[in-house]
Each structure stands twice: as structure tokens, then as C-alpha cells.
Amino acid sequence: MEERLLQIQDLHTTFFTREGNVHAVDGVDMEIGAGENVGIVGESGCGKSMTAMSVMGLVKKPGKVDGGKILFDGMSLTDMRPKERRKILGNQISMIFQEPMTSLNPVTTVGKQVKEALCLHNKGLSQKEARERVVRVFEMVGIPDAAKRYGEYPHQLSGGLRQRVMIAMAMVCNPKLMIADEPTTALDVTIEAQILHLMKQLQEEKGTAVMMITHNLGVVAQFCTRLYVMYAGKVMESGTVKEIFKNVCHPYTDGLMKSVPDMESKERLYNIRGMVPSMLHLPKGCRFCPRCQYSGPKCFEEEPKLYEVSPGHFVRCFLFEQQTAQEGEA
Predict the structure, then answer these.
(1) What is the pLDDT of residues 7-56, one digit of tens each?
(2) N or C: which end of the chain has fewer CB within 10 A?
(3) pTM higher than 0.85 for the full model?
């Protein structure tokens, strides 16, 4: 892996509610190298977006990052004062949110919104210079007639153009890390392909690292080099995309892979049995065991740790406990 840019160490994010404490992110460890594309996948409610929000400092009451470390470029974000952290967030670390129609201000032109993000971190820029730079970034992300679009409102743009505005806002300060939270969810497949191609092109030209949060394993295969599979607030499997796709280890990852539609198959589409557990009432032991076809008595009593099944490939499952112990003895 390239030089470590982002390190998440034993991260805990908890929401303190009247019904009980919700451990939305529970002991997560992740790393992203400089210029690297890393994917995070899992079902809704598994902690993907909350991990990103924790990095961005966007967790609000009753939620709180109450444990662990977030290191960016050697600096501890968790130990910084809010004023110091704001100099990095939105500047060196940016984020593309899920739905651009709700993320953009409906009563402000898109150009002005991107310009505000630029001027916030570049105090010396004149208004004219800032506008010219925003128009250049609009052209870079493929927005036609960029100067005209600068003065338009979000409702005047198509879904694809709004998403390009969000990418422009994320890229305008030339960040070292860009977090993309479901950036293609609301788009049709043609626009999705264009957006992914654009992001990859910008990433290669600027050397920006990308954290891609998605449900779509096809996007991961096309865009990412490493992958983290999350379930109920924990990382269940991690490794290179090539290794995981070739050698799926965790039963949950296997279920996600089998759930991908195959247009040539006439068999009924596979689905993982059961439901994602309530984060207020998590099962004892392994969090996936009530839905797992391989679960045994130990799975319902103890929580498995991450076992290294091959160099850089980790899986949280007792199926690999004996294998890794034998390899350690050898």
C-alpha cells in the first residue's frame, strides 16, 4: 500500500437515546493510502456512512465519537480543536453526499455554493478569481456551458448535472482525500458510468485518494483496489478487491456476492435470509450468526476476532480460527 493517508483505529461512534445506546460504529479499523481507491460495502444500517460522518466531524447530538483515533496525514483529527479541524475538513478532506438535491441549497445558485466552499479555505482569492476557478472546475467535471450553469439553481439541473456540481464542490480545493457516499445511487446506469469515469479520471490526474461507500459490488470491481465489508457496525472482511472477489471468505460477503443479479441466469435471485439486527438489540456473539448457515454454538456465545487468512486479507469468522492457528504453529 502507498503511504498511509488516513488511519482509523478502533473507532467507536455511539448514539445515546432514551431506548438505549446505539453503537453505530463499533471498533472499526481502516487504512487508506495516498492516491488509493478504497471501497466500503454492506447493507443499509451497517455503519458505512456513519464511519464517513465520523471522519468528517459531522456526527451531531445525541451521537458522539467516543473512542478510537482518526489520523489524517500524520495528524490526529480526534484530538484537534474544532477550529483547527475545520481548516482540514472541506479542504484537504472533502465529501460527496448521497442525494445532491437535498445536499445543495435550493435557494442559492450552484456556482455560489461551490464558490463559498472555495473562498472559505482560500481567504486571499478575489471574487472574480474565485468565480473563474469555479467555472474551470465545472468545465473539468464535464458541465456543459459552465459559465451559464454557474448562475443556475439546483432545480434547473438534471440529476447527473447536480451530481457533477457535488463532485466539483468536493474537488475545488484539490483535496488529498475525497469521501464519496453512494455518489451514483439516484442516477441511471448511463449517467452512473459517466460519473464513475469522471471520478477515476480526476483521481488519476490529481492523485486524490477516494473512499467509495456503495451497495454496488460492480462499482467496487470497476473503481476500487481494496475493500472493507461492514455489518452491524463492524468490519467483517477486508483485503484487496482482487483477493476478495477471487477468494470470498466471510459468509456475509459470500451472500452479498450471490445477491448480485445475473442476467443470464434463470434461477431465482439469491437473498441473505433474515434481517439486519436492530442496533439496540444486537445478538450475543457474532452479529451475523442468526443469519449464517454455518453458525455453531460458539458463534452464539463469543465474538470472533479478525483472522488473517492470507497476506492483507482479514476475516471475522470462527471458520478460519483453526486454519490461522495451524499456520501460526507451522
Answers:
(1) 999 999 999 999 999 999 999 999 999 999 999 999 998 999 999 999 99
(2) C
(3) yes
Give the Cα separation of 5 and 73 in Å (integer). 5
Determine which helix (DSSP H) or strand (DSSP E) holds 76, and give its type and residue range.
strand 75-76
- Dihedral over Cα of 19, 9, 27, 58: its sign: positive
CB atoms within 10 A of CB 257: 14
The average pLDDT across 194-203 equals: 82
Q: What's the DSSP call for residue 188? A: -
In this structure, are residues 142 and 198 in contact, taking their beta carbons and an 8 Å threshold?
yes
Cα-based distances in Å from 65 to 57, 92, 159, 314: 9, 21, 33, 25
Burial class (CB in 10 A: 0-12, 13-18, 19+), 3: exposed
Q: Domains in the chain, start-ordered, CATH in brackets?
A: 1-84+176-273 (3.40.50.300), 93-172 (no CATH)
Q: Which cell goes with 301?
A: 456465545
For 261-305, the pLDDT digits (tens) are: 877 878 888 889 999 999 999 999 999 999 999 999 999 999 999
